[in-house]
Amino acid sequence: xxSFEDAKSRIAKLPxxxxxxxxxxxxxxxxxxxxxxxxxxxxxxxxxSAMDGYAFRxxxxxxxxxxxxxxxxxxxIVQAGDTTEHTLKxxxxxxxxxxxxxxxxxxxxxMQENTSRDGDTVTITKCPKRWNNIRRHGEExxxxxxxxxxxxxxxxxTIGFALSTSVHEVPVFVVPNIGIFSTGDELxxxxxxxxxxxxxxxxxxxxxxxxxxxQLGFTVQDCGIARDTVESTQQTLLHAIRDLxxxxxxxxxxxxxxxxxxxxxxxxxxxxxxxxMNFWKVRMKPGKPVAxxxxxxxxxxxxxxxxxxxxxxxxxxxxxxxxPYLLNKMSVPNPELPTIDVQLGQDFTKRGSRxxxxxxxxxxxxxxxxxxxxxxxxxxxxSSFADATGLxxxxxxxxxxxxxxxxxVQCLPCWGRWxxxxxx
Length: 424
Prior knowledge:
Layout: H1 4-12, E1 20-24, E2 37-38, E3 48-49, E4 53-56, E5 70-78, E6 92-96, E7 108-111, E8 116-118, E9 121-124, E10 134-135, E11 146-148, H2 156-164, E12 169-173, E13 178-183, E14 187-188, E15 201-202, H3 205-214, E16 220-226, H4 230-243, E17 248-252, H5 263-268, E18 274-281, E19 284-285, E20 289-296, E21 301-307, H6 311-329, E22 339-344, E23 348-349, E24 355-365, E25 368-373, H7 383-386, E26 390-394, E27 400-401, E28 406-411
Parallel strand pairs: 5-6, 13-16, 13-17, 14-15, 17-21, 19-24, 22-25
Antiparallel strand pairs: 1-12, 2-11, 3-10, 4-6, 4-7, 5-9, 8-9, 18-20, 20-21, 22-28, 23-27, 24-25, 24-26, 26-28
Helix pairs in contact: 3-6
């Protein structure tokens, strides 16, 4: 059985065929940059006002004070979108609005609240520093300089920033063609409907994982449900490889040691393909029975993640193995779940010598953020995952983590969840 750290190290070495494409940046939300991006123009492209107010030549108002105010004639107005080139004449000022180009020779903007206007004259009682309330030409970015790095996961802020430097197209990684399938005679597809019979359960894993991929901006193909035979599992695998041309595969179920856990056998003798499995078990909980490897085809090498069938274990395998693997291959700088240090709100205990990821609820009080377990930590209890806002890695060599001690926890990509105490 591999340690969690050894498993992560082996996964990082798995191949993944990646291609790139150039797309309009406004269609790139959720995509990952394939190269560094440079500004195509200076930002700002010209000096502009940061405030509604009045533009002055500082040399004209140096003597301004409460005891000796300075009054200047208003010589014009400049508003945002004005393309006329204005020049500020000596001993005058101009009305200016936020975002408007600063007139030539003006080097100070004073906000309107700090002035007094009487008809066509403006009085001030204090001279600010040069360039006060002026956004200088090129101060945020210069044309040709890097504004976004390869591996950036594009969102509203990064796209908006790049657009403001006249970047309209970006090279991004083509999202790998990911195939997902589940295994098990007991599974009934929710998409096909029907009524559960005794001994049947809904095949939720494929849908759970599709949604988890969608949160990353990835779309996947549902390859269906394979029954608990070598033949059915191999047919599903070959369909995903040959017919759907998948670049990567994720399966759930059939990787334990039961009589009907046949994924091992199906992969070991997959017709027409050589399969190299890196490991079958990881010293972690939940999610110990997990298989990672590569299917070598004449066309390409396809990584496969065979996750456990329990929904909690399958989703945990996604967060700990699949998600960081994909983001790392695309050069995303922080591929793991984000972490924060928190206090434990109560004692945490466990049995055994495996690393355990405890589903937790993060609660803020007057003393900071504290972590509490979400309830039953069995891999069969999906409700404790549904209530979780984080994961506490409980070290393999510990059996007790005491209340008040500080630990680093993983934050899950979830919002709008109730405190799980409502269930009790």
